Amino acid sequence: MYRHPLLESLHICFTLPIVVLDNDLDMLKAYPFQQDSCLQSDLRPHLDKVWRQKSLFPFTLLRTPKGQMLALYPFQNYLFIFGPFWSASPAQTLRPLADLAYIPQHCLAQEGLCPCQHITDVGHLLHLIHYFFTGHLHLMEQDQESLTQEIFEDIRKELSESLIQQCNLYEDQHFDFEFHLLESVKKGDLKEVRSFLSQSVTPKGVTKDLRSEKNYSILIFEKLSQLAISMGVDPVYAHHTRDYYMSKCEACLNIHDVLALRESAIILFTQKIGRINNHSYTVAKILRYIHQNLSQKLMVEDIAKQFNFSESTIRKLFRKEMNCSLQQYISRKKMEEAKVMLRNQNNVTEVSNSLGYADLAHFSRTFKAHVGLSPKQYQRSPIKDIL
């Protein structure tokens, strides 16, 4: 029987019924217990149709004439049913997020036997469910996702060309602004950065039109991420954060939102670098070295030689500041990277090799010790992103 404590937590947070069906559409679990009594036998053909079809959208919404709705979410070998619930959301606002189909009223039990919550914005509900299972915050249409990624890749390629050429129009102002901004961020001093931002987040003399502000923000996001990596921030975190802000920036409809987003990115990276700066100079350099060499076989002996310390000294220094051993930290960081790669459906052997493990069995044992699942079990897990 399918069970997962966080799925029950999701039910409690939503106060929304959840039913889990297997590949044959037999019930595995219901929250609350016996909630499947709301679903009548006449509903099964509609569920079967959703389960068998290959939709471009992750959700299908089934709607009764009275406005009751079920959100169907096929995920791996399970069909998750959320609802029923009430919503007055217009059909046209739901189309970009899900297929919409109508079912007869008798597919659900009578209202007295099947209480319904009212959902004001179904779109927000669907985004949250989708994030729970996948960790993705971007728009859920697969075609739109592909197009957006293509646009971002084009933008990055043009950073050294059109964007920099545009910045050259105001070379002196940009250089002065960016130099002081990045120096403030590099210190990790949030108070100084906030003082700097209170003056302006755009160099004086730059014409403020929406496209120009977006382009300049993208350039700043790129520079912030590279600065963060150079200061020891995890490259995966830095790149993910950069891409997230680029995505949000492209979606902004006015200059005010772009400026607010840019300020948010500057503050976030400053805070992250500030936490790194709280470490001693030596430990900060060790952390940076580890993050930049996760693909290598990292041994304490080699790290000690890299920084001209004895093994015993570097072990004591690291444990004192990080509250864990150097080898424990390396393993944890490698496993965090492994989880990201496994979520992206990379082959287990490829993941092991790319993280410097010569022995696949050793990698698998280490992964299971950290996560509680083998790499293949984790990759097949329907809710792998929460671990």
Automatic annotation (TrEMBL):
<keyword id="KW-0805">Transcription regulation</keyword>
<dbReference type="InterPro" id="IPR009057">
    <property type="entry name" value="Homeodomain-like_sf"/>
</dbReference>
<dbReference type="GO" id="GO:0043565">
    <property type="term" value="F:sequence-specific DNA binding"/>
</dbReference>
<feature type="domain" description="HTH araC/xylS-type">
    <location>
        <begin position="284"/>
        <end position="381"/>
    </location>
</feature>
<dbReference type="InterPro" id="IPR018062">
    <property type="entry name" value="HTH_AraC-typ_CS"/>
</dbReference>
<dbReference type="Pfam" id="PF12833">
    <property type="entry name" value="HTH_18"/>
</dbReference>
<keyword id="KW-0804">Transcription</keyword>
<dbReference type="InterPro" id="IPR024022">
    <property type="entry name" value="Tscrpt_reg_HTH_surface_antigen"/>
</dbReference>
<protein>
    <submittedName>
        <fullName>AraC family regulatory protein</fullName>
    </submittedName>
</protein>
<keyword id="KW-0238">DNA-binding</keyword>
<dbReference type="InterPro" id="IPR020449">
    <property type="entry name" value="Tscrpt_reg_AraC-type_HTH"/>
</dbReference>
<dbReference type="InterPro" id="IPR018060">
    <property type="entry name" value="HTH_AraC"/>
</dbReference>
<dbReference type="GO" id="GO:0003700">
    <property type="term" value="F:DNA-binding transcription factor activity"/>
</dbReference>
